[in-house]
Write a structure and sequence with these properties.
Keywords: ATP-binding, Cytoplasm, DNA damage, DNA repair, DNA replication, DNA-binding, Nucleotide-binding, SOS response. It comes from Levilactobacillus namurensis DSM 19117. It is found in: Cytoplasm. The chain is α/β, with parallel strands linked by helices. It has two domains: 182 residues, Rossmann fold, CATH 3.40.50; 195 residues, Up-down Bundle (Glutathione S-transferase Yfyf (Class Pi), Chain A, domain 2), CATH 1.20.1050. Helix content is 43%, strand content 23%. The strands form three sheets. It has a six-stranded antiparallel sheet, covered by helices on one side. Strands 8-12-13-3-14-15 form a six-stranded mixed sheet, with helices on both faces. A hairpin with a 2-residue loop joins strand 4 and strand 5. It starts with a strand and ends in a 10-residue tail after the last strand.
């Protein structure tokens, strides 16, 4: 899979841009605060219908405009697919092959991307919400069923939390409807937990091999999914559902008192262990960076295994955060394998030595110009 073309209209600081992209490594070269990250954000948004930097879609629209538009052509083994995404004050509209989609969930998955930025180190050392978001965004791209279950779960969770708040203001508790909501939430929550566990086992397999190579086989990486459901109940969705239902009953008084749902995948976490020690708590900065890099590179192989296509890789100023050994491993791993977009202020040093025939774009003040001397994408 690769993105053959990208068009922007009134997106962030770009009034208009039309790029022909290289199949291999594309380098976005320019000084800071010129719009390099905005281009990566555009690719990310075109894939996932949302930004990785803001929850407010209005921030994506150029302040002089009322709408922002992204378009691109995705090339897969099965053929070429035009994609289009429009942001406005009224919401967003997505088109596949010029046909508008009734639901955004039908659109996600047409273009798969993996983003790696300095803040992605927070996957390892950040708050649990960061790791939950990581699982939801990445697994949702690979598995439409996961995305559907997650959407249903979030809707029910809001409804149940609202009802728990309402019950706080009534002396007579109507627990019948609460039980109905609990049963529904448990069913979708069980599917999410089971799918997370399934995908994490696969991701762990790829990440372990990569981590061992980067650490020269001195370290062993392992994942542990942290949930209130007992390990013995994690065999299949039915046993997980039964366990969640029992936990809701056990925690009912506490949830009524606090007015919120205390059990479920929205409270779970993912722990990374290096040589049997929690790397979030006890790992060195180098171990944390190696873990984050291993997880991100493992996603490439997992997406290929799950979808049949390699994803597009977005590297936002990440090379400056890695030492020479990790830079070398990263660039060697992706060369001739996945379409990659790299933002950087300079092509000097190890980066220049390892990137073979890059397609280079010069970015300055919301304009982007292709370097005519660099290798450009073919029209195949």
């Amino acid at each position: 899979m690769y993105l053959q073309e990208l068009q922007l209209q009134n997106f962030r600081n770009y009034a208009a841009a039309d790029l022909k992209l290289g199949k291999g490594i594309n380098v976005l070269l320019g000084e800071n605060a010129q719009g390099k990250t905005n281009l990566l954000e555009a690719i990310y948004a075109l894939a996932l219908t949302r930004s990785h930097r803001t929850a407010n879609d209005h921030d994506l629209i150029n302040w002089e405009a009322k709408t922002a538009k992204l378009a691109g052509r995705v090339v897969k083994a099965s053929g070429t697919t035009p994609l289009e995404l429009t942001f406005s004050r009224q919401g967003k509209r997505a088109k596949i092959n010029h046909l508008e989609q009734a639901r955004l969930s039908q659109y996600v998955g047409q273009l798969n991307v993996i983003l790696f930025a300095p803040e992605d180190l927070a996957i390892v050392k950040g708050a649990p919400t960061v790791r939950r978001r990581f699982m939801d965004m990445e697994f949702g791209q690979m598995n439409p069923r996961y995305l559907y279950n997650l959407s249903q779960y979030r809707t029910l969770l809001k409804q149940r939390n609202r009802y728990l708040k309402d019950l706080q203001h009534h002396q007579q508790h109507d627990l019948l409807f609460l039980g109905v909501l609990s049963d529904q939430l448990a069913a979708y929550g069980a599917e999410i937990i089971y799918q997370r566990l399934t995908m994490l086992r696969k991701l762990e397999h790829w990440a372990q091999t990569i981590h061992a190579e980067i650490s020269q086989h001195r370290e062993t990486l392992a994942f542990r999914y942290a949930t209130q459901v007992a390990d013995k109940d994690l065999d299949d969705p039915k046993t997980i559902c039964a366990a969640l239902t029992a936990l809701y009953q056990k925690q009912q008084a506490k949830e009524l008192y606090q007015g919120t749902t205390l059990i479920g995948p929205h409270r779970d976490d993912l722990h990374f262990q290096v040589n049997d020690k929690n790397v979030q708590t006890f790992g060195s900065q180098g171990q944390q960076r190696t873990t984050a890099l291993s997880v991100k590179l493992a996603e490439i192989d997992l997406m290929k295994a799950e979808t049949g296509e390699y994803p597009v890789l977005l590297l936002d100023d990440v090379l400056s955060e890695l030492d020479d050994a990790r830079q070398t491993h990263l660039l060697t791993a992706i060369q001739d394998k996945v379409q990659t977009f790299i933002t950087t202020t300079s092509l000097s040093g190890i980066t220049r030595q390892l990137i073979k025939d890059p397609t280079i774009f010069h970015v300055s003040a919301g304009t982007v110009v292709a370097d005519e001397s660099s290798d450009q994408a073919s029209d195949e």
